[in-house]
């Protein structure tokens, strides 16, 4: 075992061995007959002022032992002038006169040892003075016998050695002494000095016991500190000195806040963002529940009152009827007028904008149908030209560039940090865990396991990378210039297993964990056991996990050095995968992560998901193609004449419709790729799904409307029928496409690249898809209709089908209508059953009540949506990283490092030095170091766990001339003869050019056990020094966060660090920002709630404006907007219950929810605003808005259900089989909620809401009310069976 014997060994207890000199008198050794009979037992017989108890060195008890003092009860003596001078230089001016019990030789040893102790506690003048006073008094006090009593001696030749003694310390002094030192920090480790000089003592008795216990590297003899009392120690009394408190009003002894809690200013309390709650419910949830409850109560009262009034009225009418003639009224003969109620509500007023849009789309449809070849070829050429941008297509996989805006503060700060101090080192980490036992986790450490693990680390050290042959030494992080940083328990033993004693390894390991500075690794920085062990309570020997971290130097992107590091990491990953099997054979488990692992596993997840996504799209493609053919092809028709199926099928039309969707995606990707907008994996996986959801619905609407026109205007040319169909559906497509494009385009204003790029690609794809649908698809539809009328086969138009119904045999003698049924089964169900039931008065009231209840629940669940994206969700469920992240949260008890970075600091000026320092008496009360120290004391709020490594404090202490191994000029220390001398008031400390010169020397000084405050290891890359301007453009103050065990911990820690940096800047004026490696990924969560609200709110605002303008009614636009808003709220409430957290991925999906919700609602709203006259004729009992809502459902309800709802459900259900948790959670759950809620709101709530609150209706521009329209309408009705048309069932 290699243990570095540091200053602790001699700075603490071995000071006691320096208190005696080889000076022994016969008087001291003999039993004095005049000794007081009442004196305490022992070898110090006289206890009186002016008399000693020990003096001189009499030898050692063993070869490796320390010198032991001699018992000497003689009188104190006057020292020589030189001795007096030496004593005063060590112990102060209070020793300027009077006899003493020490000599020059003793003072030499005392001086050497106290200087070593000063390197630990010198930052706190009170602790230092009390410590010095204790040992100076013990060694040299002329009244030594009054408080020291020798109780045991051992012979050594003709001499006696003191082996045990009692020293009396008063409770007041001991308590004050301990209090002055208990909070002192040691700069090299940031740990407490009490851990070094007092063994981690919790009170003064433990402190004194640690000082007095005989131990190999402590006191060479036993010192007891009994409680002083006259009965047990007659004639003895503790010294009268008083210990200085660390918060002394005397500036010479006052300690800084960092080392003395009592000196600290009280920071203002933090107004935490406590969630407002009423009991266990958030205030928002409580408020909406109360409001809804009041609404429900009032509704029940209203309904009850209405029912009571109706019964009363009915009863009164019945009584009146008995008194009157029961003959039928003339009004009852007017049944025909009531029966045709819908005609009474047919709008007659036109909307100019709607008329203009209708004419434009009619001309467009006519042109596309008349010139299909030109239209199709032009569309293909334009899409092909746009798709040329694929040559510049690149996918962004860097998480930083995906989720962080390059203009955000976090990105700028990361760039500043990387430029100033170099990129944050790359970390390779492994956990060796013993949790495979049936009885549960057990100790992971054993002698055999240590032997095997030492071999593993040696293999890693010798391993050469596969491609370049690089070793760890080539790529590792070397702060001292020659040794790699490897945080492992092997560092306690110098990396050499041969030095481990099989019988003592446990004691040695515990000793190193207790005092890491005694077991420095090669890179000369103490190893905190929190970074090495996990799952233990008291002893590290009981640890259930050990942690090993290899630090690798990071470099800028696209550099050879970075490629070299990644090459070595790839080889390390392969080796550790092999080591996993070795660990399993030993009954242990190894988990690990390399810097390249996460990105690799994310890409693997995408490759796995690609198959599932492809299957999902394929199923939607097939359904859409088959369902389109089913609009005019029924089972009855196929059975009657199977040949008709070959003609009436629209499979090829469906395929073309799907191809148009893919063309729009290709064109959008090509367009934005050419513009330099990088694609993301989200775009590749989501955009086709999104455009398919929008595009298929429009295709269904166009085809269904065209079939109606085929029946009502069958004798017109195909181009005219196409014009009429597109004239009616075009404005509806314009409404949905415009609102969706704008909703998606809003996301392009977001700084987050993943969201911004997705929004751009989505908006472009939806817009291009709409253009292709009203041009290219219309041309294909016209060609398909000509094929049908020519009796040619679907998919093979060059084959004429024999046996199919000929044109002359068509229904009612009209060409092209062979085999066409008047309406599909779904549309008939909606017309006859669903719409009438939905629009009944009682049903409408129930629907509004129930959906407002859903909305209330959604609002109540909003506060329950958590923030974050757990890495374990983003990778495949069988990834080796899953166990690593589990172990990281379960066993790693150290938080990530955090740096508070200063910018453009003029640290050469005293005033600015005082703004950032913390360990000197004149530092500002709210200096940077003091604020960080106070924040450390409230970790539950600040999430700061460790003391701050303050470079300026350690630099100034490095100049302390009492540290003879630190700043040295030749044979003298730098500040040995400085005037004024080095002091804790900063008076006379370097400024200007002198400051910079000494600072650069400090940064180049190697950190060693003799001078642990030297700056090379701890601060070599922590400062940027500008010689020309004598300033510090960049520096950082290092501390660490508390352990992070959840996404909420990371987010809270980041927000807290931001708050602290802001406080520091406000108090000091120094520009400060916090930096930790994980901040860049969590910056989004500071604003994501506000961003989500702004995006969704902005989208809803645009939807309101566009829908109001295009529909010609603010009321109708408002109903559509409210419906979309309610849909999104219900979706968010659902994902809260489904465990979906809010992050950039779910934000993208929420934007999709807004867009697709509009698609569900727009066509129904358009059909309500401009109802079909032929359908209104068939509305027998509804009046006004109810009639138009009924007509809208019958007109487009079937298309919305079959074209988007069923299509999406089929596609979404396939995603349930993915192995990727991120797809299962963020896509399957969210999209399933989207389809269900959007369909329910569009097909149930929206018609009811429109019937209550919808705006005015307008006449269809295609209907002029003339003879032609009347004949067409009559022709349509003539095709209906009598029982259908004249039935009272709508």
Automatic annotation (TrEMBL):
An example Gene Ontology biological process: lipid metabolic process
UniProt topology in membrane: Multi-pass membrane protein
Principal cellular location given in the protein's record: membrane
Keywords: Disulfide bond, Glycoprotein, Lipid metabolism, Lipid transport, Membrane, Signal, Transmembrane, Transmembrane helix, Transport
Keyword Ribosomal protein annotated: no
Signal peptide: 1-20
InterPro entries on file: HMGCR/SNAP/NPC1-like_SSD, NPC1_MLD, NPC1_N, SSD
Annotated localization: Endomembrane system
GO cellular component: endomembrane system; membrane
One example GO MF annotation: sterol binding
Pfam families listed in its UniProt record: NPC1_MLD, NPC1_N, Sterol-sensing
Phosphoprotein keyword on record: no
SSD domain mapped to chain residues: 609-783
Record-annotated membrane-spanning stretches: 284-309, 369-391, 614-639, 651-675, 681-703, 733-752, 758-783, 1088-1111, 1117-1140, 1147-1169, 1189-1218, 1230-1253
Entry's family note: Belongs to the patched family.
Protein's name according to its UniProt entry: Multidrug efflux transporter AcrB transmembrane domain-containing protein
